[in-house]
Design a protein that fits this description.
Low-confidence stretches: 1-30
Strand content: 5-15%
Number of helices: 8
Largest sheet: 5 strands, antiparallel
Structural class: alpha+beta
Distance between the termini: 48 Å
Shape: globular
Radius of gyration: 17 Å
Number of strands: 5
Length: 195
């Protein structure tokens, strides 16, 4: 017997919306992804917090590694966004389908001047020492880069990992910071619109 996977119209529409957002993206488009994220998932009355131009240089000197260039360039150009509940609602309304890995909501990005201290605090609370925390979800779980990967990539885009503080577990959520932001752009709009 041949089994057929039956898709609801909603799931099929969500798949097509996700693919259409990602279709045709190239290296040139990556410079616009955070601006598109801010426009779609942030409230216009709450602009992104600017990042001080020398903040990444200080952090890289302290850590002895280069941070991913896409992450630095996007934050320096656009600032640190503060997504509204629309993003969390979209993540909850559209659970990840079979072709995707789990996608936690992105609540905030850490100011580069606070990343080192924030990382140390979370490492004391059980986060693995090889993680560098640069953001968190609505439950306080950490979005991270792997320090060992940063050391070997010399500023090239690096994988994004997610550490769940309740489970003490971690997993990769994207191949790069740009790819992470693109995953949020691929989400369908929430069923119930909240701001």
């Amino acid at each position: 017997m041949i089994r057929r996977r039956i898709f609801s119209k909603g799931l099929l529409a969500a798949m097509l919306a996700g693919f259409s957002v990602l279709k045709g993206r190239n290296a040139q488009a990556s410079e616009d992804v955070l601006a598109a994220f801010i426009q779609r998932w942030c409230h216009p009355d709450h602009p992104a917090d600017p990042v001080a131009p020398g903040a990444f240089d200080i952090l890289e000197q302290e850590l002895g590694v280069k941070l991913p260039s896409d992450y630095k360039e996007l934050l320096l150009r656009n600032g640190r966004p503060s997504p509204t509940l629309r993003l969390l609602t979209a993540v909850v309304d559209h659970p990840v389908a079979w072709w995707q890995a789990y996608l936690p909501d992105l609540a905030a990005l850490t100011d580069p001047s606070e990343i080192s201290e924030d990382t140390k605090t979370w490492q004391e609370a059980g986060m693995p020492d090889h993680f560098l925390k640069f953001g968190w979800d609505s439950l306080g779980n950490a979005f991270c880069f792997r320090l060992d990967e940063l050391g070997s990539r010399n500023g090239a885009p690096a994988e994004v990992w997610f550490w769940d503080h309740d489970l003490g577990d971690s997993f990769k959520v994207a191949d790069s910071f740009t790819a992470l932001i693109e995953r949020y752009l691929a989400l369908p709009d929430p069923v119930s619109d909240l701001d």
